[in-house]
Amino acid sequence: MTDNPWLNVIGIGEDGLNGLGALSRSLVEGAEVIYGGERHLAMIPEDQCVKAERRSWPSPFSKCFEELEALRGKQVVVLASGDPMHFGIGGTLQRRFERREMRILSLPSSFSMAASRIGWPMDKCQMLTIHGRSIEALVPHYLPGARLLVLSRDGASPREVAIQLCERDAGETELIILEHLGGKRERIIETNARALAEAQDETRFADLNLLAIALPYEMENWLPLVPGLPDEAFEHDGKMTKREIRATALAKLAPRPNALLWDIGAGCGSVAIEWLRMHPTCRAIGFEPLEKRRAFAQHNARMLGVPHLQLVDGRAPDVLHAMERPDAVFLGGGLSEEVITYCLDALKNHGHLVAHAVTLGSERLLTAMFEQNGGELTRIEISKATPVGPLFGWRPAMPVTQWTFTKQ
Questions:
Q1: What is the phi/psi pair of residue 187, to 5°?
Q2: Degrees to nearest 5, angle at CA 56 with 54 and 58
Q3: N or C: which terminal CB in the chain sees fewer CB atoms within 10 Å?
Q4: Which residues contact 406 (CB under 8 A, 6 or more apart)?
């Protein structure tokens, strides 16, 4: 960091300018341009102490980067709520400007204030946001005994979350709505999901609110985060990578933060969806030429809490051109030497490729790929106990040949 960064990102609370420290206040008073939302700008009095030009965020928001670039060298202040680096503008700006250009001054976040008000240790909570994001992203976090602190989108968000919880048979979930934390209008309301969802008056809260969610320790309808969701969790037409096989594939694909998966022949999206559920920054593109199966995949992604699954219409390898290089590739169908070769070339170093075959022709192809390139070739056979008259016997599923390759 230089001695005098030009871009100052300053956290501000409900008490406005009076709640800022000496450095933050001096930067606001000495700024040439101040950016912020209308609520933040309204906190700065228009008097002789603050003479800066005031600018609201443009629409679309992305225009602000060009505007800020043009201000390089001036003293610019960006106002943000609480901690700008916790689901805030600070992280967005850090991706566009060099660290030495910026100074970030934080206040206690809404999360820390909420935790202190209700007595929840922050290290035992999951901190999330639906501000500018889909409410469906909360679904993977609805687990027995979980405690969630969620930044709301607006005053309607708590009731929308309550309805979502009831749809998943979690109506006994405790909800605490915390409004205007740290200000004169601070208010805390305690209820549960069923009561709020069934409220007759279409209850709406202050737009500035945070939602604390305490899920019951006993829940019937929930799904684990580990690979291998039940097949019944997905809508499909029968063509899908089954649970046990899917779990082994995901283990070898090795999901990790920020990694991109190509799911070629995505079908109902089961592999890509489970990949995305492993970490909130995981990314996946599903390539599927059949419209019906893309519709299944889109529905499943929404219901299972990863609505950001990207789906592309087309057949490999033609549809793969100009796509971002992947960290992992899953080939569940449509195997050909041309497709595999293209994927091996596109795969990043240390990336993983997993391909499955169920027909003799596809198995021969994977055997040849294994002999040419190395890796690991595995034959997976699953049998399940099923009724045989009044008794039970083993019924085998079609064996799957799995080729796994790590690019060095």
A1: -150, 145
A2: 135
A3: C
A4: 350, 351, 352, 353, 375
Q: Do residues 147 and 111 make contact, with C-beta atoms less than 8 angstroms apart?
A: no
Q: Give buried/exposed letters for 101-129 (b at 16+ CB in 10 A, else e).
A: bbbbbbbbbbbbbbbebeebeeeebebbb
pLDDT band at 3; cut points 50, 70, 90: low
Going by their DSSP bridges, the two strands 33-36 and 76-81 should be labelled as parallel
The yes-or-no verdict on residue 2 having pLDDT over 90 is no
Say which amino acid occupies 356: H
Q: Are 213 and 191 in contact (CB under 8 A)?
A: no
Cis peptide before 84 (omega within 30 of 0): no
Q: Which residues contact 120 (CB under 8 A, 6 or more apart)?
A: 114, 147, 149, 212
This prediction has a pTM of 0.89
Sign of the dihedral defined by the CA atoms of residues 263, 264, 266, 271, in that order: negative
Contact of 100 with 2, CB cutoff 8 Å: yes
